[in-house]
């Protein structure tokens, strides 16, 4: 009787192992055919019997499971990607090289998914996917944690953003690097290569030319700035200043960091302090047009129009194509009109008032004439700038320049149809 029971038990185990191997094999065939739902179903049927499988079949099971849940890698849910990653990791721990490739594919899918989420402004989802990719890298790809932090902040999830940013700060993350570029001879487009060696190899093939390098600046300033921004939004001003001071101790002359500090004070309403720091930045980087532009904006906010004008003029001198600076100069010039109009509106009907009205009208026309050269240059450099064209049209209308009004109408029509 015992022998019969033992024989039956052994037969049952043999049948179980056979069925389990069959389901695993079916999952592998389904994956190969691209039938990922069918593969997942076979995996679900085999999983309860997995304890009876030997190491070789167990490794296959986890490899196929990872492949089934990864699928094509496109539009895969975070839950399925996590399932795939866990399965690939188990197969990799058992020695599967194919599973190692699967882990890389999962991380690529996470990053591509995060990019799509960012473009759709689904910042929370992007942050979660990038953080998962960071963890799957063994916490080595810190750049993904940096971008996860940025997306969390964009989503308004300041607690998560602060957690990630403080991790980066504690690890001394810098983020500076060198990009290696070359021009694709077929498309004429500049492309980023994975490494200097890859770039040099592609140059030798003749498919690429014009090798170059681009320095990616340190991200410590951005990190400190984001931490400070979170504290400022929560009105934790002392902590914001402390976070910035900590970063500055390590990098006292880091321009990005100094700009972040200036922006912090600007956000706190301390615009004089902003100006003070930005003047220091200009001493370090006197040829940076954007710095002068930002100082111009702040000086205008503080009511110092003369200083704002000088900063905008310097920005244009350094970067003649900076349309924002020219538009702001136009706005500064036209702001003189307000006092003139106010006085005109308060005049009476006496002869003296009528004479004064005529004088003020001339002053107003002089203001328009002062703005015209800036607008003409702006439109010449950017013929699709609708704001500039409309402003020029209105000014020429006030000055009675009908030919110019028609010219602006033509430009408006062309710009609108582009």
TrEMBL record:
Pfam families: TPR_8 (PF13181). PROSITE patterns: TPR (PS50005), TPR_REGION (PS50293). Residues 1-19 form the signal peptide. Keywords: Signal, TPR repeat. It comes from the Bacteria. TPR repeats lie at residues 221-254, 289-322. PANTHER family: CELL DIVISION CYCLE 16,23,27, CELL DIVISION CYCLE PROTEIN 27 HOMOLOG. This is Tetratricopeptide repeat protein.
């Amino acid at each position: 009787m015992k022998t019969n029971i033992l024989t039956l038990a052994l037969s049952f185990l043999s049948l179980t192992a056979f069925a389990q191997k069959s389901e695993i094999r079916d999952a592998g065939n389904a994956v190969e055919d691209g039938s990922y739902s069918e593969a997942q179903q076979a995996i679900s049927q085999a999983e309860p019997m997995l304890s009876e499988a030997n190491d070789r079949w167990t490794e296959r099971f986890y490899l196929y499971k990872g492949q089934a849940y990864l699928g094509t890698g496109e539009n895969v849910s975070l839950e399925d990607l996590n399932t795939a990653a866990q399965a690939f990791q188990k197969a990799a721990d058992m020695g599967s090289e194919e599973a190692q490739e699967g882990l890389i594919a999962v991380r690529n899918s996470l990053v591509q998914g995060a990019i799509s989420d960012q473009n759709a402004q689904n910042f929370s989802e992007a942050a979660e996917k990038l953080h998962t990719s960071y963890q799957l890298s063994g916490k080595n790809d810190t750049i993904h944690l940096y971008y996860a932090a940025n997306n969390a902040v964009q989503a308004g999830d300041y607690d998560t953003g602060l957690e990630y940013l403080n991790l980066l700060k504690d690890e001394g993350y810098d983020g500076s690097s060198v990009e290696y570029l070359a021009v694709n001879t077929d498309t004429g487009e500049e492309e980023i290569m994975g490494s200097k060696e890859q770039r040099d190899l592609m140059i030798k093939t003749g498919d690429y030319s014009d090798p170059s390098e681009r320095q990616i600046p340190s991200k410590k300033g951005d990190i400190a700035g984001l931490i400070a921004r979170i504290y400022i939004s929560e009105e934790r001003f002392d902590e914001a200043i402390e976070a910035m001071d900590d970063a500055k101790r390590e990098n006292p002359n880091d321009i990005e960091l100094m700009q972040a500090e200036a922006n912090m004070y600007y956000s706190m309403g301390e615009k004089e302090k902003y100006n003070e720091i930005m003047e220091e930045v200009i001493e370090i980087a006197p040829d940076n047009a954007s710095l002068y532009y930002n100082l111009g904006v702040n000086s205008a906010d503080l009511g110092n129009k003369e200083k704002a004008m000088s900063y905008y003029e310097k920005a244009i001198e350094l970067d003649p194509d900076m349309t924002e600076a020219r538009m702001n100069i136009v706005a500064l010039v036209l702001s003189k009109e307000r006092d003139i109009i106010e006085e005109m509106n308060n005049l009476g009907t006496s002869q003296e008032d009528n004479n004064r009205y005529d004088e003020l009208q001339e002053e107003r026309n002089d203001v328009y004439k002062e703005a015209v050269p800036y607008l003409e240059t702006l439109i010449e450099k950017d013929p699709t700038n609708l704001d500039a064209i409309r402003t020029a049209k209105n000014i020429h209308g006030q000055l009675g320049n009908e030919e110019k009004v028609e010219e602006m109408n033509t430009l408006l029509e062309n710009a609108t149809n582009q």
